[in-house]
């Protein structure tokens, strides 16, 4: 499968959000990545439901929603109603991950699990059959524009092996944080299926061109 590019709107110009959403619509990117933060699970607050509702009104590509919030079970149905296609929760934020993943699928979405840099890929082995996407955080979540943690390459390979061992070959591996032209190809080579890119798309001189070079190689 060719890889997918999911620009993170966290790096968009929030005063020109419609313009930036339409830029992604017109670009070679495949998904929108939406970073929802609560100021508790991560030391930052980004945006929530009303902003997502506004984004969904203009977005013409699937919405990949990354919840960096505690107790995400409370909001599964809300995000389904808002139009999320993929809903990703943090392994570190779920006491009953198996149940949470089932609830996400029951609500009609693809179920994703994000792992912080310190969380070993083994944490998802026993739910490998119950999820659709694993998001490896290649920075500590909470902020855009941080530098990529090199260890993620080894982790991506280890996760690919684990998913193969568990007969979960269709599970997508997503890499989130510090992705750009300097590491995108190597990440796909290592087994990544979805590349999230915030700064390297929206802060580029020509975002359309940047999206093109990260989406197709
Ligand atoms: C970090 C977010 C990322 C972030 C990536 O907490 O999950 O999606 O927007 O931004 P860049 O690509 O700038 O590292
Ligand atoms: Zn994210």
Structure, described:
By secondary structure, this protein is α/β, with parallel strands linked by helices. β2 (about 30-35), α2 and β3 form a beta-alpha-beta unit. It has helices at about 15-25, 50-60, 75-80, 95-105, 150-165, 185-190, 200, 205-215; strands at about 5, 30-35, 65-70, 85-90, 110-115, 135, 170-175, 195. It has a single domain, classed as Aldolase class I (TIM Barrel, Alpha-Beta Barrel), CATH 3.20.20.70. The model has no long low-confidence stretch (mean pLDDT about 100). An 8-stranded parallel sheet has the order 1-8-7-6-5-4-3-2. The chain contains 8 helices and 8 strands, in the order βαβαβαβαββαβαβαα. The structure holds D-xylitol-5-phosphate (DX5) and zinc ion. D-xylitol-5-phosphate binds near residues 33 and 142. Zinc ion binds near residues 8, 35, 66, 176 and 196.
Short recap of the structure:
It contains eight helices and eight strands.
Provide tags for this entry.
single chain, 217 residues, alpha/beta, TIM Barrel, eight-stranded parallel beta sheet, 8 strands, binds D-xylitol-5-phosphate, binds zinc ion
What's the CATH class label?
A: Alpha Beta
Bound molecules: D-xylitol-5-phosphate, zinc ion
The span between the termini is: 13 Å
Number of domains: 1
Radius of gyration: 16 Å
Return the structural class.
alpha/beta
Q: Taking all residues together, what is the mean pLDDT?
A: 98
CATH architecture descriptor name = Alpha-Beta Barrel
SSE order, one letter for each helix or strand: EHEHEHEHEEHEHEHH
Which outline best applies?
Answer: globular
């Amino acid at each position: 499968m060719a890889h997918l590019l999911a620009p993170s709107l966290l790096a968009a110009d929030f005063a020109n959000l419609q313009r930036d959403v339409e830029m992604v619509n017109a670009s070679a990117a495949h998904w929108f990545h939406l970073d929802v933060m609560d100021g508790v699970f991560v030391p930052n607050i980004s945006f929530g439901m009303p902003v997502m509702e506004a984004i969904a009104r203009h977005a013409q590509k699937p919405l990949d929603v990354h919840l960096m919030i505690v107790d995400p079970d409370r909001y599964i149905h809300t995000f389904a109603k808002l139009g999320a296609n993929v809903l990703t929760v943090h392994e570190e934020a779920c006491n009953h991950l198996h149940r949470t993943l089932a609830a996400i699928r029951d609500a009609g979405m693809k179920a994703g699990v994000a792992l912080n840099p310190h969380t070993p890929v083994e944490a998802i082995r026993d739910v490998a059959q119950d999820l659709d996407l694993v998001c490896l955080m290649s920075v500590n979540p909470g902020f855009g524009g941080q530098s990529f943690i090199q260890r993620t390459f080894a982790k991506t390979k280890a996760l690919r092996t684990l998913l193969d061992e568990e007969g979960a070959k269709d599970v997508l591996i997503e890499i989130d944080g510090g992705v750009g032209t300097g590491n995108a190809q190597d990440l796909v080579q290592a087994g990544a299926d979805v590349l999230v890119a915030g700064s390297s798309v929206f802060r580029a001189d020509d975002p359309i061109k940047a999206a093109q070079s990260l989406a197709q190689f």
